[in-house]
Amino acid sequence: MLKTRIKNRLRRFTFADSRYAATRYMKRVKWPVTRNLTLLFLIILGSVAFVEFFAPAALEPSARHALFILIVAAALWISEAIPPFAVSFLVIGLAVFFLESPAPLEITENWETYVNTWSSPVIWILLGGFILAIGAQITKFDRKFSAVVIKRFGTKPYNLLLGIMLTTGFLSMFISNTATTAMMLTIIMPFAKQYGKEEPIIKAMMLGVAASATVGGIGTVIGSSPNAIALGILQASGYDFSFVDWMIPGVPTALILILLSWYALKKIYVTDIESLDLIVEEEPTPRDLADRNTLENRIIVVLTFLVTIGLWMTSTVHMIPVAVVSLIPIVIFTAVGIIQAEEIKLIPWDTLILVAGGLTLGIAINESGLADYMVGLIPVLENPYVVILMMAIVTSLASNVMSNTAAASILIPFGALLVPPDFILLMVVTLGFAASTALLLPISTPPNALVFSTNYLKQADFRSVGLIIALVSPFLIVFMLWLLI
């Protein structure tokens, strides 16, 4: 695709003055860079001015520096002046150079604390999940599993829709929601092409995949990045919250939201089709992966899945840390050759960096004394459940207009300050769940963006299910967590 674009542009230069055409092209390329750099400069300058002129005089220097880092991170994550993962690098760098330094550019003695989030157990848990997902994709275990499950739901349109959504939601608990969405789209696209864009069941399937891929991540710690950030905050607060502890409220909550989305889609998109047969076509295997897409490798993947997830779920019995268990798929898949050097590049390193930056920001807010100072300023409501519900609504709305990982990085540490110690667990897990309920816009989540890119949906199509989930999910999440934790 890149070569085609270059050739097309070269042809234009042939039929026009090359210097004039090149100048126009460079202006188009340069403008976004100039705009983003200008915005970056203004955000940093504005943050310095805010801290200098509006920060309370009672704040200690380290707390003032932490406030500056918080404002810069929040503004950059919201404006997307630079990529979200780059903001995390900036947060880590600013924490090392400025947070506890008596003077600018004097590195703090505890600088390793802010860098070591990259090797946090939370990062290793996510990395293990990503490796499991890549192994499933290479051997096509995920695709074959989906085909078997979906066929169990028969040929009635809405039963099939339910099968697609439940399968997507289940896979999203253990596999990246982006990868799950892409895989499910390859399954339903032949059917979509057959019936066309105007068929209601097609729109329902597209939206169903996006909705279930997003909320399905609530089910497990490795299901989404906000979950990992929430777990990191809990560990920093002294809570021993296991893989199963998360699943106990996570799986039922995700299941209820998927069923709610299915019921809404069933009522909104009424089809006249009485029966359909969704045939899962076998995709050709790339030549460089043909030798790894074998029955033996699929058996290895299945066994590794079972062992890894089993040990994750029983960590309180055998006392092996969940992060250590994550080494099992990493070692096995690379040792037997299922995952090779090229596939290591497929790991979403930007997501891991983003999570590490969020953990560093949480440490900066707490270690600098900024958290204690803010707690003293914030009026405490008599009912902590009202505070938790309000923060859940804010987190859900924020996740619709910005990266849910970035929203979680800002709001989860802040939310933990607003409630008494006995309610920190409930607040943090609630906000982790709420960050995975963004369905309102095509840009809200990668699954939304993927299904929107098929051109089978309009932007307005997301509003119905998105509004229902946005209105219901905060109340449902708080109730489920109150009931089950």
Number of strand segments: 0
Rounded to the nearest angstrom, the distance between the terminal CA atoms is 51 Å
- Alpha-beta content class: mainly alpha
What is the residue-mean pLDDT, rounded to a whole number? 82
pLDDT < 50 stretches: 1-31
DSSP helical segment count: 24
The rough form would be described as: globular
Structural domains: how many: 2
Strand percentage: under 5%
Order of helices and strands: HHHHHHHHHHHHHHHHHHHHHHHH
Helicity range of the residues?
over 70%
Reported for the largest beta sheet, the result is: none
Rounded to the nearest angstrom, the radius of gyration is 24 Å
Topology:
Blueprint: H1 2-15, H2 18-54, H3 61-79, H4 84-98, H5 111-115, H6 121-138, H7 141-151, H8 157-172, H9 177-195, H10 200-216, H11 225-236, H12 243-268, H13 295-313, H14 315-318, H15 322-325, H16 327-335, H17 341-344, H18 349-367, H19 370-377, H20 384-401, H21 404-417, H22 424-434, H23 446-452, H24 461-484
Overview of this structure, please?
With 485 residues, this protein is mostly helical. The protein folds into 2 domains: 91 residues, no CATH class; 365 residues, no CATH class. Helices cover 72% and strands 0% of the residues. It has 24 helices and no strands. Helix 11 runs parallel beside helix 21 and helix 13 runs antiparallel to helix 16. It is globular, with a radius of gyration of 24 Å. 45% of the residues are buried. The N terminus is likely disordered.
Task: Briefly summarize what is shown.
With 485 residues, the chain is mainly alpha-helical. The protein has helices at 2-15, 18-54, 61-79, 84-98, 111-115, 121-138, 141-151, 157-172, 177-195, 200-216, 225-236, 243-268, 295-313, 315-318, 322-325, 327-335, 341-344, 349-367, 370-377, 384-401, 404-417, 424-434, 446-452, 461-484.
